[in-house]
Write a structure and sequence with these properties.
Length: 433
């Protein structure tokens, strides 16, 4: 493969800006470049010295555009792509009215294939190069997404969603045994193949029986390099429902913990209304929680305590949660995280937002060092942002003073129009029509 040299502004992180002053964590080259060889980042540095040292490299000059690691969306539901922005419901009603009827359609592998391809093309158009998705209860739903990601060369995390309780509608229910067997087959087929990771996926404890949670805990114990993704304490009504279904549980996290579904490779989406014991346990085991800000405001769930949980030492990823989330864009997602941080009284810095959307999510998915990082050795998944992509952003950026004042308008107001290019494993991804 030829050596590629991408020229533009570059921004790399050398530490976690939630734990150290962000000024100590950022390396910025205003006239920078990224050298790519064999699908990986070889060097990030000054444009002139890279050009002098690598005269044979194929150059793509992005001018003053900002080169970042591709965004990592740590929690989403590709089967909900076609019901994004459905009006007027809160979590349980929203699931019953919009989500479950749509998820039934994934019994048809051709439908699953079409939506998987559409979702990944939308992700790439928005600068997202890795995502972690739920499937439906259909084995083929996971096959469809893994296949579509493989065809695009994308790093992907996904799993077949498991629901066997009568709280899920007939037609969208499996059994403890079929959930185990089909998940095991998918692990065999996909986990560690190319750029794929399998995530064992109980939807959430209200739609699983104890027997199913126990079976999936056993599956995880037998396949400890897999991730495990689920939902936790998203909405107050949901927590009350969980208490009715699991009267013996100490708290929501306990419904997972007591069945072997709490561990360092666990991903717990939302995690808004946590008890002190839950925070302690998540921190002790090194599990990750995933912040889904556009979903939290869209479904009316509540205000995630980003700064507080980061200070407590939790691993936190950032995610769209489409179609509960209202955007495929991680820029829009960062903007919503900023707005929620303001409502909680601590404005997060743009450096913290960009770190969360890249390295933070990659760490949550145990993919750090591979993706989410603009540094030597990382896989060359990149997004190139035009920092003046619309007239509204351009007029603000023209008055900006310094890097962050220039970048923040694109975080707050940008969308897919800000994405000049997306690179996947060292190749420029074609922009679908
Ligand atoms: N809790 C259980 N399932 C879902 C889902 O599909 N979306 C969201 N936002 N929360 C959930
Ligand atoms: Zn979700």
């Amino acid at each position: 493969m030829t050596t590629q040299l991408l020229l533009g502004q570059t921004l790399s992180f050398t530490g976690d800006p939630f734990l150290q002053p962000w000024t100590d964590c950022v390396s910025h080259h205003e006239r920078g470049g990224v050298l790519i060889a064999d699908g990986r980042i070889a060097v990030v540095g000054d444009r002139a010295s890279l050009q002098a040292a690598h005269p044979q490299a194929t150059v793509t000059d992005y001018g003053r555009d900002l080169i970042l690691p591709g965004f990592v969306d740590a929690h989403m539901h590709y089967p909900q792509t076609r019901i994004i922005a459905s009006w007027g419901k809160r979590l349980i009603d929203w699931l019953n009215t919009y989500t479950f009827p749509e998820e039934m359609r994934f019994a048809d592998p051709a439908y699953a294939k079409a939506v998987a391809e559409e979702t990944l093309d939308l992700a790439l158009r928005h600068g997202t190069t890795t995502l972690c998705s739920f499937g439906t209860i259909h084995e083929g739903s996971a096959d469809a997404l893994f296949s579509a990601a493989e065809a695009r060369g994308m790093r992907i995390v996904a799993g077949r969603t498991c629901m066997d309780r009568d709280t899920a509608p007939p037609g969208l229910r499996d059994t403890a045994q079929s959930a185990y067997d089909e998940s095991a087959r998918l692990i065999e087929r996909w986990h560690g193949r190319g750029r794929a990771t399998y995530a064992i996926t109980p939807r959430f404890s209200p739609t699983s029986t104890e027997a199913q949670l126990e079976a999936l805990g056993a599956l995880w114990a037998a396949n400890p390099t897999c991730l495990m993704q689920t939902h936790l304490s998203e909405q107050v009504d949901e927590i009350a429902w969980m208490r009715d279904l699991y009267p013996q549980a100490r708290d929501y996290l306990d419904t997972y913990e007591s069945f072997g579904l709490l561990g360092p490779r666990g991903l717990y989406g939302h995690a808004i209304h946590l008890e002190p014991r839950e925070i302690d346990r998540l921190q002790e085991v090194g599990a990750a929680v995933v912040h889904c800000p556009t979903s939290n405001t869209f479904i009316g769930s509540g205000l995630f305590d980003l700064v507080g949980l980061k200070r407590r030492g939790l691993s936190v990823g950032l995610a769209t949660d489409t179609g509960g989330g209202s955007s495929f864009s991680m820029l829009r997602t960062m903007a919503a995280a900023y707005e929620i941080s303001q409502l909680r009284g601590t404005a997060v810095h743009p450096a913290q937002l960009l770190w969360l959307a890249t390295e933070g999510s990659a760490r949550a998915l145990h993919l750090d060092g591979l993706v989410g990082r603009l540094g030597p050795g990382a896989e060359a998944d990149l997004v190139v942002l035009d920092l003046a992509s619309t007239p509204a952003i351009a007029q603000r950026a023209a008055r900006a003073e310094g890097l962050w004042d220039t970048v923040f308008p694109t975080i707050m107001m940008g969308d897919d129009r800000a994405v000049r290019a997306t690179w996947v494993a060292g190749r420029s991804a074609p922009r679908p029509a």
